[in-house]
Every structure is written in structure tokens, then in C-alpha cells.
Amino acid sequence: MMKLPKIVVSQKEYNDQIAALLKDQECIIFLDTNILAKMYALYKGARHEFYSWVRVNKDDNRIKIPAWCINEYTNKVVRNELAQYTSSVSNSLQTNERNLSQLVKHLTFYIDDKTAIDQGYTSRNDYLIKVAAAQQKLTDTIISSAIAKSIANSQADIHHEIIEVFTDIILKSNIFKIMEKSYDDYQTRFANKVPPGFQDIGKGRNEIGDYIIWRELLEAAADGQIKKVLYVSNDVKIDWVYTPPLIITAQSGGKPKGYGPKDEKISLIDTRLEYEISLAAGAPVEIMLINFEQLVHTLTRENPGTFQLLSDAIQTLKLSEISNTIDTTDASIIAGETQEPVVTDTEQAISETEEVLQETESKPNVNPLLQQYSSSALADATYAIPNTDIGNIIALLKSNTWDTQNSGINSLSVKKLNSASTDELFVLGRNILQSATGSAFGAISLINNFPGSYHLASEEALQHLFNGMLYEVYFDSQSMFRGSNGKTLYMDELYKSYRNNPKLNKCGEFIAAALAGYERQVLYIPTIQQNTHTLTLSFKSLDSERSFYDSTLDACFLDKKDILQRIDDDEDSRVGGLKWLRYYNNNVEQIQDAVRYSRYIPEEFVSYKYKLDGKLVNKLAVSDFIIPRDLYI
Q1: Position 294 pLDDT exceeds 90
Q2: Which of 101, 375, 448, 554 has the most CB atoms around it within 10 Å of its CB?
Q3: Domain check: are 227 and 367 in the same one?
Q4: Which pLDDT value is given to residue 168?
Q5: Helix, strand or coil for residue 542?
Q6: Do residue 418 and residue 493 come from a single domain?
Q7: In this predicted model, what pLDDT tens digit does every residue of 317-333 receive, in sequence order?
Q8: pLDDT, tens only, 113-128
Q9: Would 66 be classed as within a structural domain?
């Protein structure tokens, strides 16, 4: 039965649906042509994180590329047009060189002798000479033609990577037969404004490409290959999707509202397309279309630390795109003037939980160190975000977009920290840690350098802020202990700040009080237990003729106990509080971190050993391994 389109959509439900489909073994993930093109904009480390994810899903036979997408990519190759995929990077280098020159020029209007001397220079002339030298060095080393040439030369390497990684996931569609039949159908659909592709008429080359891709999906559905679909594309397929006019966000108190300037527009698949593919399959088909950034953001949020380079690359590309749109002749920008972000609909809003993990049993804790915070701050799913400076920043951090989260961090100041309430600071700390775990640049920088530029804030304010960060590592938005799924990605950095800053001494006492009763699950607790542990990763060789990998993870001994658990797909009830290891293939450092994080052990309190077929080996001997799908810790 055809469904009617929605007029209200929940941001949380939408994000949860993406996360669920990414993990669902019945969901087939399709990659569009522009995802292959995106590889040319990513640096090597980021690409290889993506390739590892593709291989995991390839092993499970749940990732595909339509044959027509390969046709589109092939057109670029045979016409020697691959340079178009890297042109944005080269253009960015040229634009940034112009912007840098313009910036230096404008600085000369704002610097006098007094300003220069205040900054540690002998005179205005001394300042300008050193700025000019720095500009030349930056241009020579970063924005050089040699680097632009290197980017162009990398095209062949990336093309070979694409051949290796993606060749065996191409749909075996007869695109020539589909193409022959498509023109008449396409004209009929165009005349009746039936998606997809009717809005592509007149765009020239490849105007029926989207329709041919859709026909491939319909054929796959008819063959029984499809039950659920996640289509990943950076193309704005405006006649595949629609945007409901009202949205429910973490800041709207459960009530629908119109889109604000910081709200991410949500695109749902056109209900007619969902109906058509369900008819082809002979059963209801769930289908979503998302872009590459949404894919990476979800993978990062659900698997902290596993896709760090990829998420960093996406944010760097976005910053570059934004910088290309800035008018550097604007004196207010050159002078460093900033505007506070506009935040709407935050008055007395009730935040929704963003948790997608099952919760473990909580234990009551009446320690007075915890009682300095309200129950709604400790279980901040019920925290009413106040309409204050800090409240507005919390609202921005609860966004699901990096840009919005980073703008929230950028608007933070010592003055705002010193004027905030105890609960505000604690909840702010929780959301800073959460944003950093999701790879938001600004939050990561704040944690890595804490207290950094906020060192002039009061000792009390810093303690409450830091307490919130620590608490978020161990407890979720219902104040439930996280089990093996703690937000531990920046645990090492937090404890480094704790040890190096006397102002934070009391924070150790606070988190130790909060963790009372969890000593068996948390093997490092400040002031209580700080023992060193031995982690032994044990691998078993695989038949090289039958497997792409040399070995598989077989056991994981923390001290003398194997902490691996095997859980089949039909035993979901046992997964609560455990960490899934499937995405840690071929990266020993990441699997080491995953294991020690599961027991909350900082790096300096653990040593490592490796075994292959029962014998001690060095780390290099186990660098090519696969994690079985059913392994948890």
C-alpha cells in the first residue's frame, strides 16, 4: 500500500534509523558514482579507513555499486577527465593562497607601532617583515604548485585502489537492455512527474542516468536481493526525496517546529519510490538516501575512534569549501570580529537522549560529591536546557552536525563559564565530551588542550566542567553505567589533564565516588585502583587460498582471563553493554584500544603481547587479520 508523505520528522528517530540500517544484515548499501569521486578528495589514511569499512560489508555481501555508476565513472576515465575530481582541492589551494595574500594586506591597516610592541615586536616594521617571511614560508611549504602537482599525480594510484576495492561489488545488471527500455518509460514518467529523474530532463549528458540506476535497484528487488536499502550519494536527487516541513529536535521539547538556521535538513525517500520498489520485491522495502557526510558521521558516532581520519578529512574539506566562500575584503572578518550564533527554540526545552546502546543496570549512589548536581544533570535526558549563554551552547552541541557543534565551542568564553550554574557547567562538560567522541574538531581541540585558553576561568567552574566530561565517559543520559561501551576515546587526554593540573585534583575524588560499586568493570579509578594490566591478543592462522586475510582474532586475554564473547545475530538480547568488534579488522592499535577502553584502562597502565597459533610473536606478524562477526567484549 502506498504511504502518504510525512509532514513531521524526528531528528533522533531519523538518525537512529540510519544507524540501524548500517548494522542490519538485511540492508544492502548502494554507493553512487560521486562516492567513488570522493576518494580523489581524501588523503590516503582517510581513504583506507573507508576501504576497510567497504571490505567488512563486502565480506557480508551487503554493499553494491549500480553498473550505471561504473559507466559514469568509466566515462571520466576514458575521456581523461579524472582531474575534475581533484579540481576542488587544487582550486582550494589557489583560493587559500589569494586569501592569505589578502589577509596580510589588510593586517597592515590594523597594526601600528603600539599594537606591534604589545605583541612582542620591536616596531610595526619588524612585525610586517616577519609576517611577510611567514607568508612566504607558508606558501612555499603548504600552498605550493608542487603539492598541487602531487595531487594530480595521485590520480593513477587512487584509480588502482578503486579497481581493487570496488570491482567485485558491481551489480551484474544489463544496463544496455535497461537503457533501451528506459526512454519510453522515462518520457511517460516525465509527462506525469513521477520520480525518479523527471527533473533531470534537459540537463544534457546522462539525463536518464538516475532512472537507469533506479531500474537496476528494481531488478535487484525483483530478484529477491533487496529487503532494505541505504543509498549513499552526494548528488542532491531532488526528485528522489522530500523534506517534511516540521522537525522534532533535541531542543524542541518533543514538539514539532520549523527548521532553524542550525537545523540539518532531513530528506526522506519519496513514498512513491518506496511503494514501487516494494511492489517489485513483493514485500515492503525500507529505503533511505543519505550523503557521504551523514554516513561518516553515523559510523563515527556508533564506532568511536574507528573512522577518525575519515571524519577529520570530511570536516577539513568542509572548512576548505567554507573558506572559499569568505569575502576576505570584509574588514570585520580581518579584524577578528565574531558574532554570537543565533539559537532558537531553546527556552525550557527538554533534551532527548541520543543513546543507541542498550543500558546496563544502574546502582544508587548517594555520595555527597554527586549530590552537588541535580538528578536531571546526572540523568541529562531530562535536563531542561535553560535560555542562557551556556544553555544555548549546550543546544548547539546537541546538534548532529559538526558545523553546528564547532560553532558552539567557538562561542564559549571564560566570562560565560564563570557566570554559569553548577548544573550548566556539568551538562556542558558532558556534551563537549560527546561532541568530541563524534569527532567535532572544536570539542576535540578543547579536550586535548584543557583547560587551554579557559585557564583563567575560576577553579570551581573548571572542576564542574571537567566533572561533566569524566561522568560522560562512564554514564549515559539516564545515569546508567555504560558497560563495555564507554565514551573512552579521549579518556587518556582527560586523565593527562587531571594529573597535570592541580585545579582538577578534586575531580578524581568525584569520579571515584561516582564509580563506587563498579570496581570489577572499571579497572582504573583515580585514587582507588591504579594497577598495570597485561593484554594478550591471540590470533589463529587462516587458509590463505580461501581467505583475503592471514589470520583471525581468536582470544583476548586481559591478564589471564579471555574476555571475548561470541553472540549470534539472533541473540540481540545479550548484546546490552557489550562492544561489537567487527570494524576493527587489520588495525592492531585500534583493537588494543577497543579492549582497554572496554575496561576503562588508560594507555600507561597496560602492556601488550601477541600470539599467533599459540606462539608469542611481534605485532607485525598479526597485522593482516579479520574479526569474526559474532565477537563482542
Answers
A1: yes
A2: 554
A3: no
A4: 94
A5: coil
A6: yes
A7: 776 555 444 443 333 33
A8: 777 787 778 887 888 8
A9: yes
Output the DSSP codes for 56-119.
Answer: HHHHTT-EEB-HHHHHHHHHHHHTT-THHHHHHHHHHHHHHHHHHHHHHHHHHHH--HHHHHHT
pLDDT digits 0-9 by tens, 30-73: 999 999 999 998 888 899 999 989 998 998 899 999 999 999 99
Q: Is 574 or 370 the better-scoring residue by pLDDT?
A: 370
Pairwise CA distance, residues 565 & 331, whole Å: 60
3-state secondary structure 292-350: HHHHHHHHHHHCCCCCHHHHHHHHHHHHHHHHCCCCCCCHHHHCCCCCCCCCCCCCCEE
Provide the 3-class DSSP secondary structure of residue 411: coil
- Supply the pLDDT for residue 201: 53
Same domain, 102 and 58: no
> Are 201 and 190 in contact, with CB atoms under 8 Å apart?
yes
CA 454 to chain centre: 26
What pTM does this model have?
A: 0.73
- Are 535 and 606 a contacting pair, CB within 8 Å? yes
Q: Does residue 319 form part of some domain?
A: no
DSSP alpha helix (H) spans, 389-504: 389-397, 402-410, 414-418, 422-437, 441-448, 459-474, 491-500
| Mean pLDDT of the region 519-548 | 86
The range of the structural domain enclosing residue 579 comes to 533-632
Picking from 160, 179, 213, the residue at the C-terminal end of a domain is 160
Give me the residue label for grid cell 579488522: 585
If you average pLDDT over every residue of the chain, what do you get?
Answer: 83
- Quickly list DSSP for 244-299: -SEEE-TTTTT--BPPPTTPPPP-EE-HHHHHHHHHHHTS--EEEEE-HHHHHHHH
Model pLDDT for residues 468-482, shown as the tens digit of each residue: 999 999 999 999 999
Tell me the C-alpha distance between 209 and 5, whole Å.
25
Query: Computed from CA positions of residues 153, 154, 157, 158, in that sequence, does the dihedral angle turn out positive or negative?
Result: negative
d(CA 221, CA 278): 8
Whether residues 137 and 190 fall in one domain:
no
Q: Is residue 526 part of a domain?
A: no
> What does DSSP say about strands 615-617 and 606-612: parallel, antiparallel, or unpaired?
antiparallel
Q: What three-state secondary structure class fits 217?
A: helix
State how many domains the chain has: 4
